[in-house]
Design brief:
Blueprint lengths: L9 H19 L6 H21 L1 E5 L2 E5 L1 H4 L4 H7 L2 H21 L4 H32 L4 H12 L2 H12 L1 H4 L5 H16 L11 H17 L6 H21 L22 H16 L1 H7 L3 H12 L1 H18 L16 H33 L23
């Protein structure tokens, strides 16, 4: 494309610069890279962010902030959680990436300890920054007279992404042991735990937390199977999609599981806290759909603009994930002096709140952009030459920063 004429309108010059940059990223990306993996990772990240922003409300009442969910007052919105609860896709891509990375490390003579240390540093160093900042922030809030309940609410929300990292780090460490585990084994654990909890009403309360590693091990081992080439057929993907969908529908309609795939404050049962059988079968359906879409995603990612956008999300994946709740809380707190603003400080009990929250989304994106500018350097320093937090070590596995060989 020709250079823009000097003195051309600013929008035209900006568009030209964006297209030129996208073409450079596209040209620098190794041909062996599986761009579908990055596209799925970007979808999972953005799904979690948008999902949290749409189903998490901070209600200002009597000088305190408390959490609420529109799903409690508007249960018809439950299908939103089916689109934006994307954790199974995270673990699918993470399992694929870890299995590829470990196999590549072994082939290059890299020890398990060195491989694991490199991955955990990329995960935990940015998390340490989040913990440190919120430790300071909580102390300052308490010393300035903020109520303990408000501080507890803010800290709990801010640190909520860390539970994922702990589970993900544990599964990553266990990759050599679980990479060849058949997904039916952890699925059987979840089935028996739920049978004891909900069917027979037996066992201690902590029994359900066995589902935390077992439930997410199902998509993780599916990802490892994908890395081994065992899920290349469309038949396998269709079986996951149809079987998972049918099982989830049956569990919701006839076994009393919640329709929402995210937790709802005040509900007797949460599908995520800890994961239930319905969450796991729903995740299997998501994995099947993701596998079915691989070829279409690869085709779509041949477009330079689309690929550059996905690469950008992957380059900041950890930062976006860790700081998106902080962006929500900073926006909420900073606007409190203006009064109880609809969609930001009010009870999420009707369509007006949802319309207000949609109005505030661009402001939340701007706040997250500030967090990215402030903390992305930590992610850059720990990732070295790989995008995202689950980037495989092998180019054939879809890893490596565009333009760099892992």
């Amino acid at each position: 494309m020709a250079e823009p004429v000097p003195g051309a309108p600013v929008p035209r010059r900006v568009a030209h610069a964006v297209r030129s940059g996208a073409r450079r990223v596209d040209a620098a990306t190794p041909a062996t890279r599986d761009r579908a993996v990055d596209a799925l990772r970007a979808y999972a990240i953005l799904g979690v962010v948008l999902g949290h922003w749409l189903v998490t409300a901070l209600v200002a009442e009597d000088g305190t902030l408390r959490t609420a969910s529109p799903l409690r007052y508007l249960p018809a919105l439950a299908p939103v959680s089916w689109v934006l609860q994307t954790l199974a896709v995270f673990f699918l891509v993470g399992g694929r990436s870890a299995a590829d990375g470990h196999a590549s490390a072994r082939a290059r003579g890299v020890s398990y300890g060195a491989w694991l240390r490199g991955r955990l540093v990329r995960l935990l160093r940015p998390a340490a920054a989040l913990l440190g900042l919120w430790a300071v922030a909580a102390t300052v809030l308490l010393l300035t007279g903020t109520s303990v309940d408000t501080v507890r609410t803010l800290v709990r929300l801010a640190l909520s992404p860390l539970w994922f990292l702990l589970v993900f780090a544990a599964l990553t460490a266990a990759t050599p042991l679980v990479a060849r585990l058949h997904p039916l084994w952890p699925l059987a654990v979840v089935l028996h735990v739920d049978l004891l909890r909900f069917g027979l009403h037996l066992g201690p309360a902590w029994l359900g937390w066995l589902n935390l590693p077992a439930g997410w091990l199902v998509p993780y081992t599916l990802g490892a199977a994908w890395a081994r080439g065992e899920l290349e057929s469309r038949r396998a993907a269709r079986c996951l999609l149809l079987g998972g969908t049918a099982a989830t529908a049956g569990l919701v309609l006839w076994a009393g599981y919640p329709a929402s795939m995210v937790g709802v404050p005040g509900a007797a049962v949460s599908n995520l806290d800890p994961p239930t059988l319905a969450a796991v079968t729903f995740g299997a359906a998501q994995c099947g759909l993701a596998l079915l879409l691989r070829d279409r995603l690869r085709s779509a990612m041949r477009r330079p603009l689309a690929w550059a956008a996905v690469a950008l999300v992957n380059l900041s994946a950890m930062t976006v994930f860790l700081w998106h709740q902080t962006a929500l809380m900073v926006t909420t707190a900073a606007t409190l002096p203006a009064g109880r603003l609809p969609g930001l400080h009010t009870l999420p009990d009707g369509p007006a709140w949802l319309a207000g929250r949609l109005f505030w989304l661009p402001v939340l994106v701007l706040a997250l952009g500030v967090c990215l500018a402030a903390f992305r350097a930590l992610e850059e320093g720990t990732r070295r030459s790989r995008p995202g937090w689950g980037a495989p070590a092998s180019p054939a596995g879809g890893g490596g920063r565009p333009g760099h060989r892992p």
